[in-house]
Amino acid sequence: MKEKVSLKTMLSIVAVALVSFSGIMAETAMNVTFPVLSKEFNTNLNSIQWVTTAYLLAVTVMMTTSAYLVKRYSSRNLWLTSVLVFMVGTLIGGLAPSVELLLFGRILEGIAAGIAMPLVFNIVVATVPYSKVGTWMGLAAMVVSLAPSFGPTYGGALVDTLGWRSIFFILLLAPVASLLIGWKTVGEIKRHPLNKPFDVVAFVLLAICLTTALLLVNQLEGGALNWTWFVIALVTLIAFIWRGITSTHSFLNLKLFAKARFVSLLIPIALYMFIMLGLNLIIPTYLQSFLHTSSFWAGFSLLPGTLLGAFLTPFFGRLYDLKGPKLPLYLGNAIFTIVVFCIAIWSRHLSLILIIGLYIIFIIGRNMAYTSAQTAAIADENELEKADATAIVQTLQMFMGALGTTVGALLQAKSGVVSGLQHFSWLSFVLALVMFGLIASYFFKMTSLNNKQV
Asked: Which SUPFAM superfamilies does the annotation name (predicted)?
């Protein structure tokens, strides 16, 4: 009998994904407002980029709790909490009279998205038949991926017409739609009993480590290493690892890092997010500052690629279901590598049309490889570890996304918009080559594991 996915399950996935969509929509829409915000709040670009980085950091820190939350609380309560927190944060951001309140609103939005994003994929792996997991992971990713498709164009159009505050107010329609779709469809998913208390100490240590690590990179603009942040980040990382190994409380399952095949995919997943969000920050600034395009066209430059990539993502998931991960991983990463190489060598001679074309191909390759890597990394684990794998994957990729925006802003601040794009693209090319090695390592480990089982 052919396995089917019920309409209720479909709608519940869409409802929860809409909260993630809302957060990412606001994040990508705000990228094109940086010049405007710098003038309005009378501060520099490197400070304003924390409007994006603070959101991504909040998402990252919140995602570290997702493995515990999904085991401890009902998926419906988690979804409702994320919707309400996002709406409050959006109102604060839209009404903010200062950078500090704007950042606070973005942090609340990040907390909401940090609850919702892992929940989407947990619902998929818990309710969708295994033979269709790739397709539905792709569909869930598509809903989320539509946000970066529309975000920059949406933000650019509103900045040029109604002003940057309207970005927040109009965006409230998304959580309202989530409530309407999900009120009768988002229910409980299968949970494994959890008798251990939440490890607050481990959570605080990791949150401090992630925050200080970003502050450390951000302050490199001054040309010197901040040793205080470096020591705090290193000490809290070591303390977190020690706590994770020795604690009897529940937080993240660090034993997954001992699995070479999991790590072989985890690192590429994180690097794909690092490179994409870094370029998403750099390209609109490049277009406005170097090619002197409007905010609208700067945002529109990313729309065709991310929109096409979002709609193709379910097909990449279907390709995974039919052929396995090898073809989409190798082919996607090859396309990805070629494009970042082209951007690096042509960075001083790009036009709006050429950027649009290159970004279309870039996103196709990135989404093909990224979707397959994420699906395989989570689907390979047993039922007890899927929530932990999801939490780790989502946490690390969002931290690397925040790091990507920080590095992108740093390179442009230090080298200028053109050299910043070139340097970031060469870095991306080197990382893409490294990812080929990691992908090959994954398949080698899988082959060895299968041979042992036989």
From this structure: MFS general substrate transporter
Last residue of a domain, one of 233, 249, 265: 249
Burial of 15 (0-12, 13-18, 19+ CB in 10 A): buried
Let me know whether 226 and 102 are in one domain.
Answer: no
**CB 208, CB 218: distance < 8 Å:** no
Q: In this predicted model, what pLDDT tens digit does every residue of 354-380 receive, in sequence order?
A: 999 999 999 999 999 998 898 888 877
- pTM value is 0.76
Reported as a single tens digit per residue, the pLDDT across 432-450 is 999 999 999 998 887 776 6
In contact, 293 and 143? CB cutoff 8 Å: no
Q: Do 330 and 187 have their domain in common?
A: yes
Query: Region 302-311: what's the mean pLDDT?
Result: 82
Other Cβ atoms within 10 Å of 97 Cβ, number: 8
Instruction: State whether 151 and 214 are in the same domain.
Output: no
* Four-point Cα dihedral 424, 425, 429, 431, nearest 10: 30
Inform me whether the pLDDT recorded for 408 exceeds 50: yes
Taking alpha carbons only, the member of 168, 117, 172 closest to residue 145 is 117
Which CATH number belongs to the domain containing residue 93 in this structure? 1.20.1250.20
- Same domain? 332 vs 281: yes
Cα separation, 27 vs 32, in Å, equals: 10
User: What is the rounded CA–CA span in Å between residue 272 and residue 329?
Assistant: 12
Give the domain range for residue 225: 199-249
Total domains, the chain = 2
Residue whose pair of structure tokens reads 């303390």 in the numeric block: 239
Question: Residues 383, 419: one domain?
Answer: yes
Name the nearest CA neighbour of 116 among 152, 149, 143. 143
2 domain-assigned: no
Separation between Cα atoms, residue 231 and residue 438, nearest integer Å: 29
Q: Do residue 244 and residue 282 come from a single domain?
A: no
